[in-house]
User: Which sequence fits this backbone?
């Protein structure tokens, strides 16, 4: 390898002396790794150097340059994460970790090429599992480096890498707004996938390149002259076209390359909206225009906010010329508002976190030295989703907090009903286990299995997704009337005993849940329409009744009583269908006209949303609430006292419940009784705690002590 100082000076001439020293240090480590372990050196020149060189074309920051160099495969077993952090800092270490994971991930398979939904889930997964979105940019540069040397590989490998590039990495480049990478990824992949068509289009472009450039130059000269005559200051330039995009348009319009008019295209950037329409009028007055090709995206912006005037005119030689006219502000939005741009191009949906991260990345690429932007790079893309795999490699997209049981219902309703266990990455896990992105899940089923009523108890944590909850409720609704009434009576009896209630005011419950009579109440309980948490909230425990005192008039505040996605200044309204009150578990639904509507999580309208509508859901919670706590004694009967106190204490710690007293008594038959004094806010929280303790394998019974 050449002298590291020469390489750093050649590739990064504009770096400061300190930054160049860091680059030289990284290059020296790569060089030494190649000497110490020649077998790890698959090529005479380290890949990381070429990748860093590719990144310089988009003016990336020093952290990304260092991470690109240090992600070279030569360093896999030579430099661990701790060593990288100690020598180059935590930002670089995190980037290197993410890039190494992205370079080694091997989920894509040929079957995904015909399954757009699977490729989309994989793209989301790659974004969700990286801590820093710049790692994705570095990975794109690694893929470009791979494609540039792909001609030396076998045909089967070439086609696989090219197909994966078009399905996964080119769309990611598009989403990040890095058009320079997008075009190169697409064109090189197309070259390997369909070399004959690639050469045919390239030859047609080359044959007519001089003629095409002459046409554009003449048109630009005439247009510039017309603008000067009317004293309009504008930036006018030709827009290059790329081979893969030309092929896509040929295929979409079923036209040969000779009939594609927008191979000749120019863009006009002006100062204000008035100038846009003035330029349009000049163009239409000077050349014949094609009415059906005119689009006014200024008066009628695209859904993503994109604004511009698009028109096609015929020049004096009969050539069709596409013209885009926009203001500088519109142009900046089109370039920096890349989240909106890729949503339009790919049919995606609004995601505030995506916009923040991607726009920050674009700003960094275009304005070097913006160190204050670095704090914005922690990835929040799809942070509310988890992406897991079936044993056959199919990707499943679930909401964060989803369990193996949610996964089972996402695969098929019958698999969910018959589910009795699950393996996650080959290890048996409880059905309440919260899945993490990248895990492989295998469901264990039984023949003719039926769902359990416990699955509908939110205190036990079996189900998280509205779809799965709806499927279980639907199953119980279809059961016999008598079975549901009996099950409802049993559930009410069990819950009242657990809460230590000597009697239940049935008429009060009927009024509370707006039921016609006791049988209808029992049916609703048996079918799961009323879950344990709702029932516990309606049951009255005198000791947990709110203190009776008069509240002073609260001060006026601009903040909402509901916090949505960690923000409390959003426009929200309470849904009339379920009328949530402070203390209920809630979720937000983004509407088109009324901001965010707040529903109870068990609202029937929420439970029956289709997959498209479920993407409008956002996390929500009550904000600024003051909760009085009450001392509540509970009794736990267990088979054994071994580890009982530890297990219960850990459970209460995660539930954020304080223990003020605990006493463990062991009996001659090795069974044990654990008495505890807890600080509880309300009946719902008590029910949740008792329900979770009852799920411990050692516990026989748990109840409030009266």
Assistant:
């Amino acid at each position: 390898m050449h002298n590291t100082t020469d390489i750093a000076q050649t590739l990064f001439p504009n770096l400061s002396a300190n930054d160049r020293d860091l680059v030289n240090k990284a290059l020296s480590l790569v060089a030494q790794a190649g000497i110490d372990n020649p077998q790890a050196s698959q090529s005479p020149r380290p890949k990381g150097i070429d990748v860093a060189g590719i990144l310089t074309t988009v003016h990336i920051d020093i952290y990304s340059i260092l991470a690109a160099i240090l992600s070279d495969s030569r360093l896999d077993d030579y430099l661990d994460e701790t060593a990288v952090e100690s020598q180059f800092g935590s930002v670089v270490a995190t980037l290197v970790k993410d890039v190494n994971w992205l370079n080694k991930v091997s989920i894509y398979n040929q079957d995904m090429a015909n399954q757009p939904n699977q490729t989309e889930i994989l793209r989301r997964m790659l974004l969700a599992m990286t801590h820093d979105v710049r790692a994705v940019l570095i990975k794109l540069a690694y893929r470009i480096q791979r494609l540039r040397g792909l001609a030396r590989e076998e045909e089967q490998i070439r086609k696989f890498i090219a197909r994966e590039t078009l399905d996964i990495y080119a769309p990611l480049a598009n989403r990040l707004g890095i058009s320079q990478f997008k075009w190169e990824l697409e064109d090189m992949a197309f070259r390997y996938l369909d070399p004959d068509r690639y050469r045919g289009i390239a030859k047609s472009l080359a044959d007519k390149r001089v003629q095409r450039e002459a046409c554009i130059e003449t048109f630009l000269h005439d247009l510039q002259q017309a603008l000067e005559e009317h004293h309009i200051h504008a930036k006018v330039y030709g827009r290059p076209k790329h081979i893969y995009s030309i092929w896509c348009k040929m295929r979409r319009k079923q036209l040969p390359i000779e009939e594609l008019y927008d191979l000749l295209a120019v863009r006009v950037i002006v100062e204000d909206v008035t100038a846009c329409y003035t330029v349009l009028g000049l163009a239409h007055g000077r050349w014949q225009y094609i009415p059906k090709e005119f689009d006014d995206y200024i008066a009628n912006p695209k859904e993503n906010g994109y604004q511009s005037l698009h028109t096609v005119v015929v020049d004096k030689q009969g050539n069709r010329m596409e013209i885009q006219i926009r203001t500088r502000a519109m142009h900046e939005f089109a370039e920096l508002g890349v989240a909106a741009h890729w949503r339009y191009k790919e049919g995606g949906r609004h995601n505030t976190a995506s916009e923040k991260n991607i726009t920050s990345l674009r700003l960094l690429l275009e304005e070097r030295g913006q160190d204050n932007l670095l704090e914005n790079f922690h990835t929040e893309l799809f942070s509310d989703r988890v992406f897991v795999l079936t044993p056959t490699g199919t990707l499943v997209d679930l909401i964060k907090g989803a369990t193996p049981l949610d996964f089972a219902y996402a695969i098929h309703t019958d698999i969910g009903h018959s589910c009795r266990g699950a393996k996650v990455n080959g290890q048996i896990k409880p059905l309440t286990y919260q899945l993490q992105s990248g895990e492989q899940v295998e469901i264990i089923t039984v023949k003719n299995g039926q769902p359990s009523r416990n699955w509908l108890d939110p205190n036990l944590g079996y189900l998280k997704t509205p779809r799965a909850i709806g499927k279980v409720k639907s199953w119980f609704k279809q059961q016999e009337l008598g079975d549901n009434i009996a099950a409802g009576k049993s559930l009410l009896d069990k819950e009242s005993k657990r809460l230590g209630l000597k009697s239940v005011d049935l008429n009060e419950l009927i009024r509370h849940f707006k039921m016609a009579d006791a049988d209808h109440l029992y049916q609703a309980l048996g079918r799961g329409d009323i879950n344990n948490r709702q029932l516990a909230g309606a049951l009255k425990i005198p000791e947990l009744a709110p203190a009776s005192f008069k509240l002073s008039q609260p001060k006026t505040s601009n903040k909402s009583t509901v916090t949505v996605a960690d923000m409390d200044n959003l426009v929200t309204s309470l849904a009339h269908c379920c009328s949530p009150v402070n203390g209920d578990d809630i979720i937000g639904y983004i509407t088109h006209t009324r901001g965010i509507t707040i529903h109870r999580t068990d609202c029937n309208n929420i439970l029956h949303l289709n997959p498209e509508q479920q993407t409008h859901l956002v996390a929500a919670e009550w904000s600024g609430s003051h909760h009085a706590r009450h001392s509540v004694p509970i009794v736990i009967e267990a088979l054994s006292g071994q580890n009982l106190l530890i297990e219960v204490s850990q459970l209460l710690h995660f539930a954020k419940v304080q223990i003020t007293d605990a006493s463990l008594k062991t009996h001659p038959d090795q069974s044990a009784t654990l008495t505890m004094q807890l600080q509880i806010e309300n009946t719902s929280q008590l029910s949740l705690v008792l329900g979770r303790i009852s799920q411990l394998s050692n516990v026989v019974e748990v109840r409030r002590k009266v």
